[in-house]
Design brief:
Elements (H helix, E strand, L loop, with lengths): L4 E5 L6 H14 L7 E5 L5 H8 L5 E4 L16 H7 L3 E4 L2 H6 L4 H13 L3 E6 L3 H5 L3 H12 L10 E4 L13 H19 L7 E5 L4 H8 L6 E4 L6 H8 L10
Parallel strand pairs: 1-2, 1-8, 2-3, 3-4, 4-5, 5-6, 6-7, 7-8
Helix pairs in contact: 1-2, 1-10, 5-7, 7-8, 9-10
This protein binds phosphoenolpyruvate (PEP).
């Protein structure tokens, strides 16, 4: 059984005071949720405040990046040990915004993923095609490359979390249809199985790209979608709580 995981990615939004206010409301709104995991991936400057505010709750805490070295001359980076000390359990790795604006490659994604796993942090490793790649029918080739290169050499493959995020759906209001998302997720699981065999049945694959309270239930009714990585709609406690509390849609629609 793959326990649903819903992670909020706040990107570069909210200061520490705003993080506290959010968490105060959010933890009450999801207090009765038992059968799924909620995680907040917040800016570095919010981590201490968020860790304090989340104490005593099952809500996870994550960063939005992590470096592969334990320490050193890497200005602007952060290590696994630093994040663990604060109380982080998760780190987003290889988000498309990091790939697009900060030169992240499959090679650096792989290094970050391996370092997180080695240090006991769960990487939420992001993959996904751009609009140009989808229109050129390259979606599966891109996903195959990102999986083979970015997720190679994992000592404990079931410990990684994969986020399939079609770049054209991030922050655009254009969600992949449940059928489009399921097709990609099934492919990701199949490619992961080529590397790691039966571990692919246990690995969690999240969907990301304009997830909202009103489309989460339909997405989650798909067999290979195990949760969500949520940007914009995770910035408001009530809306993110509604997403976490999704109910699977009865009928699978396209
Ligand atoms: C994201 O930042 O990973 C994301 C999916 O953003 P949004 O939900 O705003 O599309």
């Amino acid at each position: 059984m793959r326990k649903p995981l819903i992670a909020g990615n706040w990107k570069m939004f909210k200061n520490a005071a705003e993080a506290r206010t959010f968490i105060y409301a959010f933890k009450q709104a999801v207090a009765d949720v038992k059968d799924r995991e909620a995680v907040l991936c917040v800016p570095y400057t919010d981590l201490w405040a968020a860790a304090e505010a989340l104490k005593g709750t099952p809500i996870g805490l994550g960063s939005q990046n992590v470096h592969w070295e334990a320490q050193g001359a890497f200005t602007g980076e952060i290590s696994v040990g630093m994040l663990k000390e604060i109380g982080c359990q998760y780190a987003v790795v290889g988000h498309s915004e990091r790939r697009q604006y900060f030169g992240e490659t499959d090679t650096t994604v792989n290094k970050r993923t391996l370092a997180a796993l080695a240090g006991g942090l769960t990487p939420i490793t992001c993959i996904g095609e751009t609009l140009q790649e989808r229109e050129a029918n390259k979606t599966f080739a891109v996903l195959e490359r990102q999986i083979k290169e970015g997720l190679k050499g994992l000592p404990n493959p079931t410990a990684v979390v994969i986020a399939y995020e079609p770049v054209w759906a991030i922050g655009t209001g254009k969600t992949a249809t449940p059928a489009q998302a399921q097709e990609a997720h099934a492919f990701v699981r199949q490619e992961f199985a080529k590397l790691y065999g039966t571990a692919a049945q246990s690995v969690r694959i999240l969907y990301g790209g304009s997830v909202k309270p009103d489309n989460m239930g339909q997405l989650m009714s798909q067999g290979d979608i195990d949760g969500g990585l949520v940007g914009g709609a995770s910035l408001e406690a009530e809306s993110f709580a509604k997403i976490v509390k999704f109910e699977k849609a009865a009928a699978v629609t396209k």
